[in-house]
Amino acid sequence: MTLPPTFRRAPRPEHAAAPDAAQPGSVRLNKRLADMGLCSRREADEWIERGWVRVNGQVAAMGTKVTPQDRVTVQREAEAAQAQRVTILLHKPVGYVSGQAEDGHQPAVTLINARSHWHGDASRIRFSPAQLKGLAPAGRLDIDSVGLLVLTQDGRVARTLIGEDSTVDKEYLVRVAYDQVTENVQAAFPPERLARLRHGLSLDGQPLKPALVDWQNPEQLRFVLNEGKKRQIRRMCEQVGLKVTGLKRIRIGRVVLGKLPVGQWRYLDAHEAF
After folding, report:
1. Among residues 35, 142, 154, 204, which one is catalytic?
2. What is the pLDDT of residues 43-91, one digit of tens each?
3. Can you list the alpha helix ranges (DSSP code H) found in 63-154?
4. What is 87-154+261-267's CATH topology?
5. What class, spelled out in words, does domain 1-83 have in CATH?
6. Which residues have CB under 8 Å from 56's CB, separation 6+?
7. Class of the 170-252 domain?
8. Confidence (pTM)
């Protein structure tokens, strides 16, 4: 994969679109670009600063507000820069944190290098250290959990997975114990408590959305969630008397962990979407 080209900021004409006073129905230009699905707000600000965005034919200034009637266009340089952004799927091992280093534990991004790139990756994208710039987790996976973790440079992907309006579900396999029972837990666990896991619990003073929870085998539950509060599954299990002894995320939306080995990673392919 070639490094993204370096673009100079386009010269701003004398009559550049300047920030406008608020008009009925107006929104900030960066929000309009994000709502169009072109980029994140942060990326939109970068495009505007580089002179890659025009409003009604004029180069836009930072802070510009637009109405539904305004015509917003982006330069090809913006499209080229966006095409260079990568999304990485990592099989996170136990002992790594999803985000920044904490309590002496390394962040998962430190596992992204040429040596740990899975040989079964079919994307044909070549690894470059430049891909680490701005690479951030789109969602959390606890330090003592394993499985699929998404790291991305693409604000559109981050918004899809962790935006306020995200509807992407996530699937987990959760090994549990009940009181002193570690084998055939399903037989010992009261059905009414399983019903509470599916719907009826609250965390942080807020009721949880209904979840799909069923037995995968006598010692392991399968969870499908449409939200992602901190340590949600472990805290849900605690409320019904279960102790989580192992947790693995196997799917995010339409993207599955599959055969990706622990500690290795691959690129999100062009034909894949969450």
Report:
1. 142
2. 888 889 888 899 999 898 998 999 999 999 888 887 777 777 899 999 9
3. 76-83
4. Alpha-Beta Plaits (3.30.70)
5. alpha beta
6. 17, 70, 71
7. alpha beta
8. 0.77
